[in-house]
Design goal:
The chain has 7 helices and 17 strands. The protein has helices at 2-24, 78-81, 121-133, 169-174, 178-183, 325-328, 331-341; strands at 33-37, 61-65, 91-96, 98-101, 116-118, 139-143, 187-191, 207-210, 214-221, 232-238, 251-256, 259-260, 262-263, 287-292, 300-309, 318-322, 344-355.
Length: 358
């Protein structure tokens, strides 16, 4: 019943748009789309793309969204879902203005959540390049870009919303320039925490890396036609510095496509972060970085391994855990994590890869 009602509604919209196009003298056929969360799949949407006179909805394109916070394609189910796209129907991958939240500040207005971190132009460019080159998409769909100027949600979206800045409309417009994306745009790849129901990313809400064992992660890349202008930087962000408790002076060893990486003492962001909330930046000593030789980067899947070497191991064992900030807010999850991790542990809640092109 629900499917039939939706089909009738979309079909009516299609016919109304067809009737309105000549009257509006637009010279083009108006194009309705269907938007869906990638975790829902396409099993109920295929019929909507059939022409209205054949009993379908006449939808001309599909947009895939993941959640309110932006995901890059490698952390969504996009690769599997593109195989279900009806032939000849273009699709767009949805991004948003935000990628996550910064640290909580005790001086903010009571009841405020942590500030949101705005997506950078490099991530917008890279997501568009991935969508087109590796996943066969038409481009990006922007969700909430117009009204996501505040860095904070209620009750403090006005009191704490400094510095003011427009969303990255210019960078979004540049994603239509395929030549620019393929040859000249700096690249920024990122793994996302699982913050969407039904959408499990690689970092997830609690991924353990036992001491002296290797954990593999994947990042899809598209090397530029002009080549990289310099080596890249791989970074992880830990809950506390690796030199302090509870990490117990731990060391993390990283490889990229089976090649050991040299630590990079400059662990800051390789590209300017753009305009962010005043209190959205994490301390520098939470970041650990490595140099990624540009020659190692392949088109398609690239494998990163992380191994924790703890200089002090307690009877509880030494474990690093990749976990999103949202999971840490759950008291039960905190309790379970503490029992599982033991006294010596490092908590990692971010991983990114920056590669300069320009």
């Amino acid at each position: 019943m629900r499917h039939e009602k939706m089909m009738n509604f979309v079909r009516s919209v299609r016919r109304a748009l067809d009737a309105a196009s000549p009257a509006l003298a637009l010279g083009v056929r108006l194009a309705p789309s269907v938007g869906t969360l990638s975790s829902q799949g396409l099993s109920n949407l295929t019929a909507l793309t059939l022409p209205a006179d054949e009993g379908g909805g006449g939808v001309t394109h599909i947009t895939w969204g993941v959640f309110f916070m932006a995901f890059q394609p490698v952390d969504s189910q996009l690769a599997d879902l593109v195989l279900q796209v009806p032939k000849g129907v273009p699709y767009f991958y949805e991004i948003t203005s935000w990628t996550g939240r910064g640290p909580r500040d005790p001086d903010t207005v009571a009841g405020c959540q942590a500030p949101k971190i705005r997506v950078t132009k490099e991530e917008i460019w890279t997501t568009a390049l991935l969508t087109r080159t590796l996943y066969g998409g038409q481009g990006l769909s922007a969700f909430n870009f117009v009204y996501t100027r505040p860095f904070y949600d209620v009750p403090c979206e006005f009191d704490e919303n400094e510095p003011y800045s427009e969303p990255l409309f210019e960078a979004l417009g540049q994603t239509r320039n395929t030549t620019f994306l393929e040859c000249c745009a700096d690249q920024y790849y990122r793994l996302s925490p699982s913050i969407s129901p039904g959408e499990e990313s690689q970092i997830g809400k609690g991924r353990a890396i036992p001491s002296n064992q290797t954990t593999s992660l994947r990042i899809d890349c598209v090397p530029p036609t002009s080549g990289y202008s310099a080596d890249g930087r791989l970074r992880i962000r830990t809950e506390s510095p690796l030199s302090s408790a509870p990490a117990a002076n731990a060391t993390v060893i990283a490889t990229f496509n089976n090649v050991s990486l040299v630590p990079d003492p400059s662990a800051g962001a390789l590209f300017p972060p753009g305009v962010q909330a005043n209190k959205s930046f994490f301390p520098d000593d939470l970041w650990t970085a490595w140099i990624v030789p540009s020659a190692l980067v392949r088109k398609g899947a690239n494998i990163i391994t992380l191994q924790l070497i703890a200089n002090s191991v307690t009877s509880g064992g030494s474990v690093a855990r990749l976990v999103s900030p949202e999971a840490r807010g759950n008291a039960l999850a905190e309790s379970l994590q503490s029992r599982q991790l033991g006294a010596s542990a490092a908590v990692v809640n971010a991983l990114d890869l920056s590669l300069p092109v320009a």
